[in-house]
Amino acid sequence: MKIGIIGAGFTGLSAAYDLVKNGHEVSVFEKDSKPGGLAIGYKEPGWEWTLEKHYHHWFTNDRNILNLAKEINYKVLINRPKTSVYVDGNLYQLDSPRSVILFPRLSVFDRFRMAGVIGILRYFPFWKLLEGIKTEEFLSKTMGEKAYEKIWEPQLKNKFGDFTKDIALSWFWARIKKRTPSLVYPQGGFLAFAQTLVAKIEKAGGKLYFNTEVKEIICDKEMAEIKFQESLKTKTKNEKFDKVIVTLPSFFFIKIAPSLPEDYKRELLTLKGLGAINLVLRLKEKFLKDGTYWLSVCDKKSPIMAIVEHTNFIDNKHYNNEHIVYLGNYLPSDHPYMKITADELLKIYDPYLRKINRNYKSSIINFKLFQVPFAQPIIPVNYSKIVPPFQTPLPNVYLANIQQVYPWDRGTNYAVELGQKVARLIDE
Ligand SMILES: Cc1cc2nc3c(=O)[nH]c(=O)nc-3n(C[C@H](O)[C@H](O)[C@H](O)COP(=O)(O)OP(=O)(O)OC[C@H]3O[C@@H](n4cnc5c(N)ncnc54)[C@H](O)[C@@H]3O)c2cc1C
Question: Is residue 115 part of a domain?
Fold first, then answer.
């Protein structure tokens, strides 16, 4: 079969890899100049490794992507970095049962209560029983008001903003269930890993078209036709396929498939999501001096959701001995920060950053801002009832995107699993 895939993120690449291995004629269309999608990376002068525009790591139980890395003989690094919370103006390590029991900002009773609830969720296998419950209500009732106010409410509010009240407990369960103390990182970075996968697909006969944006999908009963543009200066071209896989978020699928029925479009539009921004600082010295990799900022007034010091996880020798810090936020795609410049954003963040490290500014080498309009699906209660299936109303057109990996939260591991599943469906 002749198969067209739209998007060279990890869903598109994994589907392409499996389909090409099974003898299909595969073409992948990607509007960016490189593969990797949301996990795409870049390189500054002097760096040996690429770095993701948005912080990325794997958990040691991310089976699908780790098996894929093994299959293509790709080396990964395993490390146990430190995860902390910023509460009441101080940093506290909070990444093990012991650190929860020792956490000084809660009473001993509340610490045990919090540890107990996390422990139960971690070993509870029946996520479907949890999807009708709201995270906010569950956490404040079971962990107690104090733990909720100090730890969880600020994190949920900073991440989900106005959607906080809607988030289902099955989302929170998935986050707790999958977390592992040790983390994994592909040698050379996620871009290098994606490029190796591209080379394997090409070697098996697949074709990848970068800088090529798909403008429209046109369908009849027999074939699906893709209209694409190789660069802004060229005219659009058309190509026919037996099957087409779309890996874009649903909102973008609607834009390129005008012939979708109105009912289906309306259903897809009920699926909400947030964009993401990351201001990446290159520093001469460490920002988080205690060695913390991931710092969740538990302060509802903070303009930053998380501070992630990549080089407290991966050796900075790969980045010309620089220290790399992400200042991350999830925001609606129409938020003013989605259009702001890096300088303007650093001015907003600066007073807060000074509270954590007074002298960081003198150590700045450079900084860059990355913004994406869709990065985090919103998982409201009973999401399983609204997850779209692979098959779309358009004959021979399949949808496989970030909004379908439920009950898991988005991640490259689930993108790989999704790509494998849609490839199997088409193969069968
Ligand atoms: C801030 C942040 C932190 C994250 N942290 C982690 C993490 O630690 N670990 C982890 O595993 N995952 C993490 N993720 C999630 C992970 O990046 C995604 O789940 C995964 O990359 C999704 O892959 P995908 O292929 O489904 O979609 P995408 O990566 O979105 O791929 C879609 C592709 O389609 C292309 N495209 C769009 N429109 C068109 C068009 N019209 N024509 C052609 N091409 C088009 C896009 O350029 C893109 O390359 C994070 C994401 C963000 C934003």
Answer: yes
Per-residue model confidence as pLDDT tens digits over 105-132: 999 999 999 999 999 999 999 999 999 9
What span, in angstroms and rounded, lies between the C-alpha atoms of 271 and 20?
A: 31
Q: From the CA of 40, how far away is ligand 1's center (Å)? A: 8
Q: Are 84 and 294 in contact (CB under 8 A)?
A: yes
Q: Residue 104 belongs to what domain range? A: 96-177
Same domain as 220, residue 169: no
Q: Nearest 5 degrees, angle CA 30-CA 371-CA 256? A: 40
**Pairing label, strands 2-6, 25-29:** parallel
- Note whether 259 and 395 are same-domain residues: yes
Select from 113, 142, 177 the last residue of a domain.
177
Asked if residue 213 has its Cβ within 6 Å of ligand 1, the reply is yes
Q: What is the pTM of this model?
A: 0.97
Say which residues have a Cβ less than 8 Å from residue 198's Cβ, sequence separation at least 6. Answer: 8, 13, 35, 208
Residue 12 CA: nearest ligand 1 atom is 25
